[in-house]
Amino acid sequence: MSTSNPVVYFEIPVHDLKRAEKFYTAVFNFQFEHEIIDGYAMALFPFEEKNSGITGALAKGDVYRPTRDGVIIYFRTESIDSTLQKVLQLGGSILYPKRTDEKYGCAVAEFEDSEGNRIALHETLL
Length: 126
What we know:
There is one protein chain. Helices cover 17% and strands 39% of the residues. By secondary structure, the protein is an alpha/beta fold. It has one domain: 2,3-Dihydroxybiphenyl 1,2-Dioxygenase, domain 1. Strands 1-4-3-2 form a 4-stranded mixed β-sheet, with helices on one face. It has a 4-stranded mixed β-sheet with strand order 5-8-7-6, covered by helices on one side. A hairpin with a 5-residue loop joins β7 and β8. α1 (17-28) packs antiparallel against α2 (80-89). The longest helix has 12 residues, at 17-28. The termini are far apart. Residues 6-124 form the VOC domain. This is VOC family protein. Pfam families: Glyoxalase. It comes from Chryseobacterium pennipullorum.
């Protein structure tokens, strides 16, 4: 039995890869690499082996269907407030407003991205 974190990769379904890439670049300042994997267009999130966390991709294809009802991915942010402001400026919407959890020392929120996916935010409190 491994003691490492069990999740290693994720894919966020998109209808329009260019629109989704523009949205995530503007909200989080990500730079993407482009690949075709198993015939599907992918925009890969940045990843460095030496850093903690997982990576994934924006994925377009017939098997990828954006939804607000599936798995929720949490992105780390320095400021949920400023991230949600960018989301709104880019046409996204807030699904779950910022909530602080003193017990776990964090704040969380959720938004709908440009493609219709439910995405969560995590901010560590000092």
